Amino acid sequence: MTSAILTDLLESLGLLGVFLLVGVFLRAKLKIFQKAFIPASVIGGFLLLLLGPQCFNVLPVPTNWFDTYSLLPGILIVPVVASVPLGLRIGTGKGASAGEDASVLKNIVPLMFIGLGASMLQFAVGYGTHVAFSGQNLYDVFGIELAIGFVGGHGTAGTLGNMLNEMNLPYWQTSQGVAITTATFGLVGGILIGIAMINWAARHGQTAMLKKPADIPEPLRVGFEKDPAKQASIGRETTMSSSIDAFAFHMALIFLACGISYWILQITKAFKIPVLSSISVWAYGMLVMFLIWGIMCKLKIDFLVDDHVKSKISGSLTEFAVIAAIASLPLKAVATYIVPILVMVVLGYIVTTAVLFFFCKRLLKGYWFEQMIGTFGMATGVFLTGVLLLRICDPDLKSPALANYSLSYTVTSIIYFALLNMFIVLPMSSGAGVTALVGLGLGIVSLLGAIVSSRVAFGKEFKGN
User: Fold this and answer.
1) 3-class DSSP state for residue 216?
2) DSSP letter at 261?
3) CB count in 10 Å sphere of residue 364
4) Residue 402: pLDDT band by 50, 70, 90 thresholds?
5) pTM confidence score
6) CA of 456: how far to CAs of 107, 347, 367, 415, 459, in Å?
7) How many angstroms separate the CA atoms of 197 and 210, rounded?
8) What is the pLDDT of residue 104?
9) Average pLDDT over every residue of 343-368
10) Do the beta carbons of residue 412 and residue 116 sit within 8 Å?
11) CA distance 373 to 311
């Protein structure tokens, strides 16, 4: 490696930075982006895609930068996923009273099973669509992109690309592009459907905090808060800068987990250890981080970690992963599969909305709609989409819904990533039909788990809301 390579990388990242800032500006100025709550990384990414070599080719930049962009999400997603266990704590929500809090917190396990059930059924819908369009000569894993894009979001598309690329599969970039496409549909459609559900719920008395359709606060629409006094804090400064910057300390922990993970993977491949050598590096990253965090808790130095700081680091990496993935979207390859993509996206909307609405209303006790809408945002976009929808119907976050949603999301995401490798390998060995049935079976088992845990928590006499 030479300094020229690193300089070229820095220059290409500079271009991503420019278009991220352009995305921030356009989000703040154009109502259409504000109404759909499209993130700056998505706006900037599509603009860069249009101006790049795949479309109008008006940017005087090297075309190999876009090859770098296609690889970047698969690299950046490793520290993002590895950081998930760091700072993981079980907390409590906010409620009117301790008794109410205790009752509402019982919703966490049923909500986790419901969210997991929705994600498993998305795998079933995706691979079911593959079976329905089998005559179009689809690649092996076509269909996985529905759950990758909806539950995982744009950033997780990089995980998919990384895994397929590690397997030396020639269609990795196409699959990553399809996942970016479903993630975009999921994000925009999920927000629009979510806002429509909030308006319906407010008019029909189903929201606990909101008594009329919400006026969305301006900062949420434009993407920034003008008043410094109202701007939220990024997190606690857990270390003194005289020793090490708090952000650098958190980044060091995350990069440590990544480094150990790559080292473990290299060893397993060098000794050709079955199964272990085929596990993706980000999966090792999560396991290593669980170990690191467990040791820190055991040594009682967990006070050095702030979950908000960790989240901002992973969020920053995700922003660059998203804009890079969208900018390198293989348009021609994705266009080839546009009909099955649209079919599975529409079916994904229907199944996800129906499952969450039906089961949350009947199995959750207290603030059912607020918890449902947060999980719906996660199941069609990303975690922050759920927070956005929740804040629309609970602007001051006075309900325990955010705490329940956050905890259930954490558990669901860990199980989701643990099963992800299976949904990639299974269609290659057993076909899309078998994989769809496995997804359906896991979805049904998860929803049965939601029913049982709800009955255990609230008793058989509870009949829903």
Assistant:
1) coil
2) H
3) 30
4) confident
5) 0.82
6) 11, 32, 19, 22, 6
7) 13
8) 57
9) 95
10) yes
11) 22
